[in-house]
Amino acid sequence: MYCINCGVKLSDTEEKCPLCETVPGAPYERGAPARPLYPKNKLPEATLKRGALNGALIILFMIPILVSFFVDLQANGNIEWFWYVAGALVLLYVIFILPLWFSKPNPVVFVPCGFVAAALYLLLINILTDGKWFLSFALPVTVCVCLITTAMVVLLKYVRKGKLYIVGGAMIAMGAVMLLMEELMTFAFDLSFTGWSVYPLIALGLLGGLLIFLAINGSAREKMERRFFF
Amino acid sequence: MNFGYMKKEKKNLLWVKLDNAAKIYPAARRRNWSNLFRQSVTLCEEMDREVLQSALDVTVKRFPSIAAKLRKGVFWYYLQQVEKAPEIGQEYSYPLVFMDSNEMRKCAFRVIAHENRIAVEYFHSLTDGTGALIFLKSLTAEYLEQKYGISIPCEHGVLDRDEEPREEELEDSFLKYAGKVAASRKDTNAWKMSGEPQPGNTLNLTCFQLPVQKVRELAHKNNTTLTVFLSAVMMQALLNLQREKVKSFRKRKGIKLLIPVNLRQLFPSNTLRNFAMYTIPEIDPRLGEYSFEEICDVIKHKMGAEVTAKYMSTVIATNVNDEKNPVIRLIPLPIKNAVMKAIFDTVGEKKSCLTMSNLGFVQLPEIMKRYIKRFDFILGVQAAAPYNCGVISYGDTIYINFIRNIRDAELERHFYIVLRDMGIPVTVESNQT
User: Fold this and answer.
1) Cβ-based neighbours of A170, under 8 Å, separated by 6 or more
2) Cβ–Cβ of A18/B97 closer than 8 Å?
3) A2, A6, A8, A23: which to substitute to probe chain B, counting the most B Cβ within 10 Å?
4) Sign of the C-alpha dihedral, residues B296, B302, B305, B306?
5) Where does residue A22 rank: exposed (0-12), middle (13-18), buried (19+ CB within 10 A)?
6) CA–CA separation, A56 and A182 (whole Å)
7) What is the pLDDT along chain B (433 residues), one digit of tens a residue?
8) Contact residues, A window 182-201, toward B, CB-based 8 Å cutoff
9) What angle do CA B414, B346, B386 make, to 5 degrees?
10) CA–CA gap between residue A35 and residue A17 (Å, rounded)
């Protein structure tokens, strides 16, 4: 039996050509079915015991939480600083460990999750310190950074081309957030506007602009690749 | 005799240090890759598993350095003879299923029976292709003797299973034949093939069967040996594939083929452990079009210059010098592993596109031939590159086994086209159904 596409002689065991995947056209040309080279029984897939791993990690995180709870209670007679430690550990857990629960964690979901956890931690600190800066400063800044980062992650994941445009655009947007951040700080903490945010704005704007320039200019991009490949 | 390193433990089990070439393989392992290779013999009749198990029980005692498990010392790994033969394993839909550390700690080789095929899969630290073939022939001879009550003479690589292992079979010949001058390790990187990974970590095997006579005729016409000829076909296929995939002329990279060299042909060694080195012929496609004759010449001259005892002793010396360095020797194994792995990942497999290992013609005692249909030799894929290729000849057929961990058989297609255009009839079979 010969492959009708590439012409190679096929062993009688072959259901399709191993070289071009063409299925032999005329069934009457096929001889009696022969024994295949290998059996069809698949190797049982090794499964990672995710539950056990995550259980162990939860216990690992619970140890410092419990230790700090008892130390705080013993040292001060009541709970004073424990919530800061516990909040920080929960935040770390959400950002680094929670995605491990899933076989293919989607960053489009977990990046905003991380920001939500960060916002909640900031809210906790705001409440514990009787601050009045959460709604006027922390929340809008977190929301802006979250939106830009998530948009970048979504575009990088789902748009095949234009990575330089995406990262460059995100850098420029992040520079603009710096201006907003200083403005909000001035308002929330009653500070005078010093204009420090202009420096990161310029730096991020230049870097972002350079990436977009490289995205547009193929020969410049090739020169940069040649000089900076690693 | 440099045999002081070998000691006997309880139950008279032997343990040996890893030979010089074997040291890199345990360190280079990763979560889903270990350096395995397979040799198999296909009999004319269906396999009797019970007889095979009994034959294996006898054979393992004769090969204590191959029938071994990988153990960890504080500074180096070592091999320890297995207490008893492993159970005959089951065949799956692809060969060279990943061998994890647990399995290696129990036994670093497997024997698999499927219908009329006996396959042995070895972790490369145990032995090389030549040593492995002696093990497989001896196991098969023992099986045939037990099954059919025949008497097979101990010749052509069949060893007497009742005999005690000889000291020379267990020696690390690298240490013995290292030269005084060390060769440089400097080399350029090769073109790296890539493709869409095959899901589920499975491997695609494609076996080409070629008539020896026709290939030999063509090799002689090109004034080359069979190994040089097949290597040239492979390099031509790689050149054609790169031309198809990398459109920009300037971005093309060197086509380099790693051809293992059996050092027993150059040095008087009878070791059953690793004793192979390699040569890497290279073609730079940016220099212009190469004719097939030119490719043959490149390989022939490279092999002519390097496959000599003098040159190989310098290459051996380079590796042995590292092993002898007192500072390196005193570094604890986990640190050594990390450093060796980093070096392997950085340079190890970047120097060639793939390995094409030719074990040559299998010679057997006359009485065995009537029971045996074919031999196969399959290399595992490289850690970071998708292909490898093993060649073995038996009877009037050359068996060329391509293994890959990507979906598309693009290299095999190009390899076939080169053979077809030369008028070589090819039969192909695979594990892809």
Assistant:
1) A148, A149, A151, A152, A208
2) no
3) A8
4) negative
5) middle
6) 42
7) 334 444 444 456 788 899 999 999 998 888 778 899 999 999 999 999 999 999 999 999 999 999 999 998 888 999 999 999 999 999 999 999 999 999 999 999 999 999 999 999 999 999 999 999 999 999 999 999 999 999 999 999 999 999 999 999 999 999 999 999 888 878 889 999 999 998 877 899 999 999 999 999 999 999 999 999 999 999 999 999 999 999 888 889 999 999 999 999 999 999 999 999 999 999 999 999 999 999 999 999 999 999 999 999 999 999 899 888 888 888 888 898 888 888 888 777 788 999 999 999 999 999 999 999 999 999 999 888 899 999 999 999 999 999 999 999 999 999 999 999 999 999 999 998 7
8) none
9) 25
10) 16
Whole-prediction pTM value?
Answer: 0.71
CA distance B409 to chain A (A): 5
Distance between CA atoms of residues B169 and B131, nearest Å? 9
Q: Are B263 and B199 in contact (CB under 8 A)?
A: no
Give the residue from B150, B165, B146 showing the smallest Cα distance to B63. B165
In this prediction, the answer to ipTM > 0.85 reads no
Dihedral sign computed on CA atoms, order A20, A23, A25, A31 = positive
Size of interface A-B (CB pairs under 8 A): 81
- Helix axis angle, A218-228 relative to A198-216, nearest 10°? 110
The answer to whether the beta carbons of residues B404 and B201 sit under 8 Å apart is no
Report whether B87 contacts B53 (CB < 8 A): yes
B7-161+173-177 and B199-430 share one fold: yes
Listed residues A101, A119, A137: the one ending a domain:
A101
How many domains are contained in chain A? 3
Are A145 and A201 in a shared domain? Answer: yes
Tell me the DSSP string of B129-177.
HHHHHHHHHHHHHHHHHHHH-----S-TTPPPTTSPPPHHHHS-HHHHH
- Residue whose pair of structure tokens reads 């059919």 in the numeric block: B148
Q: Do A59 and A10 fall into the same domain? A: no
Range of the domain at A32: 1-41
Q: Is A216 in the B-facing interface, judged by CB distances under 8 Å?
A: no
- Which fold, B7-161+173-177? Chloramphenicol Acetyltransferase (3.30.559)
- Interchain pair B427, A11: CB under 8 A: yes
Tell whether A118 and A220 lie within a shared domain.
Answer: yes
| C-alpha pair distances (Å), B384 with each of A57, A110, B97 | 31, 30, 17
CATH topology of domain B199-430: Chloramphenicol Acetyltransferase (3.30.559)
Residue pointed to by tokens 């097939």:
B292
With contact defined as beta carbons under 8 Å apart, do B398 and B215 qualify? yes
Tokens 């940016």: give the residue.
Answer: B286
**Closest chain B residue by Cα to residue A5:** B413
How much of chain B is in helix, strand and coil states, percent to nearest 5? 40, 25, 40
